[in-house]
Amino acid sequence: MQGRRASLRAHLFDRIRTAALDELRRTGAAALSLREVARAAGISPSGLYRYVDGRDGLLELLISDGFEAFGRAIEEAVDAAGDDVLARLEAVALSYRRWALDNPEQFGLILGTPVPGFQARADGPTTESVRRFAEPMIRAVADASAAGRSASSGEEAVATDDLFPFGPEPDALPASLHSVLARGWARIHGLVSLETFGHLVWSGADVDALLRAEVRSILAELGHQDVEPATRISL
Amino acid sequence: MQGRRASLRAHLFDRIRTAALDELRRTGAAALSLREVARAAGISPSGLYRYVDGRDGLLELLISDGFEAFGRAIEEAVDAAGDDVLARLEAVALSYRRWALDNPEQFGLILGTPVPGFQARADGPTTESVRRFAEPMIRAVADASAAGRSASSGEEAVATDDLFPFGPEPDALPASLHSVLARGWARIHGLVSLETFGHLVWSGADVDALLRAEVRSILAELGHQDVEPATRISL
DNA sequence: CCTTTGTGTGAACATTGTTCGCTTTTCTGT
DNA sequence: ACAGAAAAGCGAACAATGTTCACACAAAGG
Predict the structure, then answer these.
(1) Which of A129, A179, B84, B180 could, after both became Cys, cross-link A64 (CB 3.0–4.6 A)?
(2) Where are the beta strands (DSSP E) in chain A?
(3) pTM for this one?
């Protein structure tokens, strides 16, 4: 290890990380107390400023970690789903829901109401984490789009590897995919966020089933005729 | 007027209301300061407790008012849209978006991340406001469902008036409508909340157009064959 | 070895939400 | 009409928060 100082510092930074995450899980983002985090990490409140730029810095850390963990969860689920396009999209939707329900405070922090004083800086670690978060979703949708295209019109499928690397600049991704990606993500996110925040209890709905229906609907509209029948809403 | 005291009280309560709303608009819900509201209303912080039960009471008031205003905006838009089912559903979606973009802090407060300490009491004014908020949406979806049903299968349409009054108990609404209502709401809410919270800027999407596409997709799945062609995603 | 750099502390300050005793104003019942 | 009750509003107080700053101490490097 490069110096005793660096090692101690890394250790303490990890303690701060986990302490902050614990606090977030317990009390939520809006009520997150810097002093409480310091107490749990065994450090004085002012000492925390050597590691993190005040309360906003703490939130930035949590947001970045949240996106990272969320993306990893989705990636693992879609990797475990095999090669079938439908199965992979379903894995995205269902793992999206499960992570949100299992980590409601983190979910609310990264994708819910923005915290008032805080604005993510473009040079911060957040942007890179968002990229990692979005990647598995984009890949799944792009694959589905390509497969549907070739299935319905016999056109040549675009190699999805050509879509990467994509970045903050929207031109790295074909403009034609933007709308389908936004709609697909929004359908999943709408159901999940409403459920996670408690606005869907009246319906008594089986949200997993609704998500599966949405995934099939997306695929149908992308030209996968084989999954169409399941799309029809049963009354 | 029934007593000078009651009149003064009503007046001051209104000042508190608008002061709280101003504060909310300016700083957001998480940073809403009771003392600042008191200052703007021209009252001492402790005096505020005669009107509102602390900070949570202030939030409850704002949440209730928010749902009410949101519902009214949607209702007016759908009333102005005429009798066409498609036009009415589009009005719901587009007015949903407009209100959220025009009142992002209120939107975040009532439908975003729940505020930590706060839990709406069932006997509070919030539940009634939520009812008023949901009513126009439910009506529009129920109408669309009924029309689609008769158009596709020739079955008799259920009079939508039979669906009301509905309440917190889910049995007042036919169970078959729950899923389509949840999916329809979630599609609109997903797009709008993502855009309002700033997570859709990368796409450069025309969200109004996406919303229209979603509305048509819902109608198509409800059996309106006439709007189906517009549903296909253009690549 | 001595200087420079970094690390952590404790005291301080302004601000927050909330409670409590007190005064003043309004209502009410006889 | 007037005494007693009820309500309204205020100011002081308390605990807790985020942030800053001067200072003490440990490590690193010439």
Answers:
(1) A129
(2) none
(3) 0.90
